[in-house]
Fold this sequence. Notes:
Layout (H helix, E strand, L loop, with lengths): L2 H14 L12 E2 L13 E9 L4 E8 L10 E5 L8 H7 L3 E4 L9 E4 L9 E5 L9 E2 L6 E3 H18 L8 E6 L2 H17 L8 E7 L5 H6 L1 H7 L5 H11 L9 H14 L62 E2 L12 H7 L2 H6 L18 E3 L6 H9 L3 E7 L7 H10 L4 E10 L2 E9 L3 E6 L6 H4 L1 H12 L5
Parallel strand pairs: 4-7, 4-10, 9-13, 10-11, 11-14, 14-17
Antiparallel strand pairs: 1-2, 2-3, 3-7, 3-8, 5-6, 12-13, 15-16, 16-17
Amino acid sequence: MSCSVFLSLLLILSVANISGGLGAPEAALITQLPGFHGTFPSKHYGGYITVDENNGRNLYYYFVESERNPTEDPVVLWLNGGPGWSSFDGFVYEHGPFNFRAGNESKSLPQLDLNPYSWSKVSSMIYLDSPAGTGLSVSTNTSDYITGDLKTASDSHIFLLKWFQNYPEFLGNPFFISGESYAGVYVPTLSNEIVKGIQIGLQPSINFKGYLLGNPATDMNFDGNSLVPFAHGMGLISDELFQEANHECQGNFWNSENKNCQSKLDQIHNAIDDLNVYNILEPCYHNLEDQSANVKLPSSFRMLGDSNIRQFPVRNRMFGHAWPFNSFLKLGEEFSGTGSHVVPCSNDELANLWLNTESVRDSIHALPVKDVDWLLSSNRIKYTPDAGSMINYHVKLTKKGYRALIYSGDHDLCIPFTGTEAWTRSLGYKIIDQWRPWYLDNQVSGYTQGYEYNLTFLTIKGSGHTVPEYKPREALEFYRRWLEGNII
Length: 488
């Protein structure tokens, strides 16, 4: 990292960490945002917290107080996946306090409107860029960008301990961790670190109550082997092809070395290659020429642009060359953020325009654009999964009494709900709320099943991988009910 970056970061940290021990640091207060014209419905804060003094490893956060009752409402940490995915994805496109829309002219600053379905309606939200090298989080030692599951969890735990030192007025609030996709690894490993800290008496003591995960990467056997049956069940491949693949692969679709199995997976890949992997109901445009029909896109859909394409370099690792749709790496396999693969059917143009504008960086107390280029998916980190399956983490946490909500958009081809339903069922917990529909305004919004040890599995009808993006109203509703301890 250059000397100018170091000095800029030092200046920001020297200001943002002034709290006097009495409450939220006033220097971190965000009073206005470019593109928004109005009054914030609650207080916003942002800045860096140092998790390693020697290396200068600093994680960026954006904090939104609850719009309802911040002194009592839960505080919820949000983590996007990746690995290396900025949590501004959740802030900009999913459940943040604003809806972002394109400016009046091409490449002009996006305009922000209040989001009626923001999760800050019922909770305070911390959006954290983790690990260092992700989003706006940086280190003065680039070796820190070589990381993995366990180091990421440890750093995020240190972040939380220091964050609560800076915001001690929230220590008594119920605290939850949430996330989606590869955060299916981030969240349980971080939760485990928090619980270990509580058990040995680390201060400040975090009032941790549980966690919730959307379409989470959990276990390669369950997640990987769910994709082919899901494609068949959704009518994307024929009975014949499914039966042939099942016969050749013997039900093992994600790591088979059988050439005949691989041939059948190639055929399946060819059959579904043009689908929107994140939501099979949504259109998929592969280039700008596809816009010629002037088809009106759903509000949740982000078209693939010609610049700043969202990187997702790990997608074709689980199934080898024949399958592009995994969401996490094999244990011990390194992911380099400089990969060339892209996420189909979507882009991050609005977020890129906004977050790479100098006035925005100044408003949110982040490093200048010249010092750190914001990308939705990091091109800086080298990441090695080293935590293994998350199933044992879930068992350990739920049996200690921590609440868990596992929810799935039921039209996600990236991490299908069928695999998630299967691993939650595999825990062997007693069913205390039999499979049934859940409702919003007398309409079926999905299905749910409740288990002992405060574990709930939930589907959202018609939703894709990023549930609050595709179904914002339904997402806020089940989120609110679950946080309040009500039946969904």
